[in-house]
Every structure is written in structure tokens, then in C-alpha cells.
Amino acid sequence: MSTAYQPDIRPGRLGAADYAKAFADASPRLTRSQALLEAERCLYCFDAPCATACPTSIDVPSFIKRIADDNLRGSARTILESNPLGGMCARVCPTENLCEAVCVRNTQEDRPVAIGRLQRYAVDALMESDQPQIFTRAAATGKKIAVVGAGPAGLACAYTLARKGHDVAMFDAKPKAGGLNEYGLASYKTPNNFAQAELQWLLGLGGITIQNNWKLETTAQLDALRKDHDAVYLGLGLATTHQLHVPGETLNGVEDAVEFIATLRQTKDLSSLPVGRRVVVIGGGMTAVDAAVQSKLLGAKVVHMVYRRGMEAMSASRAEQEWAQTNGVVLHQWLAPVDILGRDGHVTGVRFADQALVDGKLQPTGREITFEADTVLKAIGQRLGNPVLTAAGFALDGGRIATDAEGATNLRGVWAGGDCRAGGLDLTVEAVEHGKQSAHAIHAYLSRA
Q: For labelling, which of 139, 226, 295, 380 has a CA lying 20 to 30 Å from the CA of 12?
């Protein structure tokens, strides 16, 4: 008599004390001595390339000089004036591809100034001080703005508008505000509930309210927002994961990497979270890295991260790729999934076709490889997938909202930014800049009204 297949998925693969160690801060903050020494490495360049490379245009030499002078409050002000989510961006921004990539120290010492870690040092010091809120609101304008989506773009927009004296009502689909900062980033990047601590700092300014568990599901909702508010900003994010479109995708054990990360982030007792002994993550971005590394940290024995193109085409930075390898994840390139294998309704493995570029196009070589799996995590990107936007008459570009440079949509009085906006890099720091720039545009629009 045959028995049903039992996948090797279970919780508690580690000892109770091992979880805290595994998910500890991946990049602990600098000590005062470390920060002062690192700040002294900065050459305080005129027309600094690091500031130009920052999507939010932080005056990097200025904030580092203030750290060198032991003026952390002044340093944090310089950072937060340009980037109100400077604490989170210091933790998750791919500085190795942005500000640190163009640091002149690279040519002199083959090592840039640790700009991201210095930024975190200054902002953390402010947020943990007795008087963390250094900005004040302008006189009340009597204007009301609705912000849909309380992720990085929405929060940056709301905070900037509140500083200018406007009242902002935020509407978010999740039980907690924060968007990807709360639900979509690896725990080891944002330990100690930092996303919510930063949110409370933002709300401490005043003038911002948040309604949770509110989803934009009808055009009537959007019409009501436009009628009841002087302007509307959409920071919706991307809600739907792309499909692989291969046989076996609906088998038990095949999950979205974004959902896996969100569940992990909201699970207080990680020892209660089941993980497969053998995990295959399909994708080449930072979400794939976060899902793969955290699977390994939960106690998975073997984790494969598989991408269909070469290493240089992966959207995960080289530093992220090395981080995955350091944590025991096996990286594979030039492999495309062709079939998810299963038994008794549960995944048992993934069959991949080896690929090569032929005349600029991906072509199968005829070779195949199969990886056994108890869990398969899909991390191949997301899409907006909200039919309300088409019904409401928004101009779309590639499935996302088309806007001008300041985020204005084709609907009067409505702006959009972050991942839901067409074009861009899909980075937290870019979403913050979208929100900030749209807030300035909305303020100018309201001032003319």
C-alpha cells in the first residue's frame, strides 16, 4: 500500500537561541570612534559626485563633515531635509551602486567612504535622542490631500506636504503602514522594528492621519477622494506577482517570494515558521536574495537561487549576490524554468533549461538540469494589476501609471509615484524622491488654486 508523499517542510529547524543570532542586524551601526574615523576619510569634494548620484540629492559631504565635528543633530538635519526616510534608506539603499560607486576614494584607496553606514549613524542618533523631531509644520493652509499607499513614496509625500501646513489623510491596504519597508525587506536589514519606529517619527510631525485596511477597489472610491480632497497622490506599489507560466505552478509548496518575506516579517516567533529542507528561488533581484538568504537562515539545508540570464544582468547588486553566497545560497545563471515537478499535489523539484545568448536572444542549448525542492519561491517581479486605474481613465505605460517628471497624471489634481509609476529603478530611495517631488508640485498647484 503506497503512502502519500510527505515534503520535508517543518518549523524549528534551529535551536531557540539560534534564530536571534541568524537574524541579527546584518550591518551593525558604527561606534562613535568608527564613525569619526570613517568621516575623516571624506575629502568633502566640491560638486561632489556622491551627492549627484543620490536620487534624493543629499548633501553627502556636508552631513559627513558634521559627523566629523561630532554634530550629529546637524548631520541628521542635512540628511532628512532631502530624504525624510533617510534612516531606512541608509539600511537598504544599494549605496554600492549609487553614491559609494562614484566616491573618489575608490580611485585612491580602492574603498569608498562608507556613506550609507555614516548616514545611519547620524539618523539613528537623532531618532533615539530626547528631541527627535527637528522639523515643524508651517501655518495651516486649510488644504487637504489624500495619499493612497503608505509605503516609501506615500510617506515621503505626506511628510513633505505636512511640513508645508497641509492636512494629509493616508489610506493603506495593509494592517500596518510602511509598505515594503514593513512587509517586503529582509528582517536582518531592518531589525528591532525599525520600519515602525521611523513611521512614528514621521507621524510625530503632526498633520498626518492613516486609515489602514483600505483598498482602492472601485472608481467610486477614487471619485470620492478627488471630491473630498484638494489633491490626490497614488503610491500604490505593485500588488501582483508575475507568473512563470510553466506546468506545475499551482502545486502546493510553490509560493510568491514577496508573500514569504511578508509572513516572515510579521512572525514574532521565527521558530514557528515552517521552511523546506530544499528551497529553490527563481529570480535575480533583491527580493530573490532576501527570500533565499532568509530561507537559509531559517534552517533550509540547500537553497538554490536561479536566474535566466547572466550575473551582470541580475538586478540584485554584486554586494547582494556576494551576501547570498556568504550565507550559503548557491547561485545559478542562464537557467530558465520549464517544468515544476510534483507528486501527490506537492512540488518535488524544478526542471530548468540551460540557455545562451544567440544573436542577442535567449535560446535553449538543449541541456537541462533538475533541482529537488520542497519549496519553490517565485521572485520574478511584480505588476500593478489594478483594473480600477484603467476604468478611471489613467494613461498607462507598460501597465504602470504614466506621469510627467513631477508625478502628475493625466487626471487633474492626481499625482502618482513609487513602483506604480512608469519608468524608474524600483528602489526605495527613488520612491522617496518621487513622493518628495510630487509634494512640491502639489504644494505649488494648491498655492495657485
A: 380
